[in-house]
Amino acid sequence: MKFQISLLTLAAAAALAVAPGVQAKTFKWASQGEIATWDIHSQNNALQNGLHANVYESLVYYNSKTFEVEPVLATSWKEVSPTQVRFNLRKDVKFSDGTPFTADDAVFSLSRAMAKTSNFTPYIQGIDKVVKVDNHTVDVMLRGPNPVLLRQMTELRMMSKAWAEKNKSVDPKDMKAADENFAHRNAMGTGPYVLASWQPDQRMVFKRNPNWWGKMDGNVTEIVYTPIKSAATRIAALLSGEVDLVLDPTPQDLGRLRSSADLKVVDGLENRTIFLGLDQFRDELPGSNIKGKNPLKDVRVRKALYQAIDIDTISRNIMRGLGKPTGALVAPQVAGWTEGVAKRFPYDVEASKKLLADAGYASGFEVDFACPNNRYINDEAICQAVTAMWARVGVKAKLRTMPLVNYFPMIQRYEASIYMLGWGVPTFDALYSLQSLVRTVGTGGDGNYNVGRYSNERMDYLVDRVKVETDAPVRARMLTEALQLSNDTVSHIPLHDQVIPWAMKKNVELVHRADNRIDMRTVKIN
Questions:
Q1: pLDDT confidence tier of residue 19, bands split at 50, 70 and 90
Q2: Which run of H or E residues covers position 349?
Q3: Residues with Cβ within 8 Å of residue 435, at least 6 apart in sequence
Q4: Could you say which DSSP state residue 262 is in?
Q5: What whole-number distance in Å separates Cα of residue 167 and Cα of residue 71?
Q6: What are the Cα distances from residue 395, in Å, to 44, 310, 352, 391, 479?
Q7: Which CATH number fits domain 270-500: 3.10.105.10, 3.40.50.2300, 3.40.50.150, 3.10.129.10?
Q8: Coil, strand, or helix at residue 430?
Q9: Is the pLDDT reported for residue 339 higher than 60?
Q10: Which of 346, 343, 342 minimizes the C-alpha distance to 331?
Q11: Angle 361-364-370 (CA atoms, 0-180°, nearest 5)?
Q12: Are 138 and 145 in contact, with CB atoms under 8 Å apart?
């Protein structure tokens, strides 16, 4: 992999840019996944977004301890009118190449996130356009009131307009296509670190940004991220001291990790729900023995598949407590969630068989089933268990698994009949999930990850109302109604909310975040 000389030169300068008296500290961490791109508007993926945040900053971001929105590249904001929000930009901020961050970059970046090839449309929901007021002020013009605008903007990172234009990266890379732009493999932001090198599937190295405007709470001067697919190899690397932290230890390893005198495990409930999606669009499923029709269009079939899954067995034997079974499309931290919508359909093999028979599939059917093998906790093992459970009711799922860098573009091309997906909620508001997952596929973020192409007229009405509803109690009721409608129509098959343990050396201090993201600004190595 070749990198631009300017990037390496900058990284070398950053390595020297440690304040007097501060000892250089390298933080080495690993997880099972690799990212697909360094283009910040190209693919919406949680692991990727978290790594991008080391280099690229947004106007506002979550405080890692309180999860309240706080100023970053914007110092303040105010509502000029219900459809106009003014952001005052931080002055004297520089990109890592030394050029100033201005309103032109903010307008460019937010507009870039709205481009046809951007996968960040859920975050620009409701935004009509962005207007420069002066060099350090921008107005975000809305199509209607937007009660979650600030939370959406936490994931809209800023890119240099001049850098993008110079390097022919004005538009985000289309992840469904093979073509690459410069921003796909190169990065240049205003954040606390610079990307020094990236060797896909091997390692990623970050150095301190000498031009960063902010104050570091932590003491890390270099970050080394290593994607290690093998769970045994990840844990061995932690036990040997090769890495300081493993983001995704396996459930079966937690006992010995907790008992180690040199390690500690920090737990927390993630705001991510794992579920299965189903193709409810095509008239015939590729590779199925059922010709001329699509069994998954029948709600009885979808419910049969749901009730054939013994979620308690998966929770006990595969997740070992790291998955909290749920019937909801969102986790408890998310606005709109209630105990009622989290109630599952009961596991019942006989009821499943009857539903299949009533739908005309007493002998079952064959169906394609796709899963990632390095994204979620024990993702492949879960899918293998589900495949065996479906076989008991006559449904022969042809399971195929693949790494996340191939998996996500594949499902976004609508190439899977049944698929696994885990959905975190960066806005902590159910609109983010509902608009992306169950709103009919359209524009402006509608159906952005509705890759089963579910469509329901009442659901569309509720989602569109929630986008602009400012009466909090009314909005809450509509969010819950939409989540319940998702359950009633079996838009997806919810499995569980992930519980995320981070395993690390005892000399590591950091803040455990519900979005499973390490805020490198807070990491200390003692």
A1: very low
A2: helix 349-358
A3: 122, 125, 445, 446, 447, 448, 463, 467
A4: T
A5: 29
A6: 32, 15, 11, 5, 33
A7: 3.10.105.10
A8: coil
A9: yes
A10: 342
A11: 120
A12: no
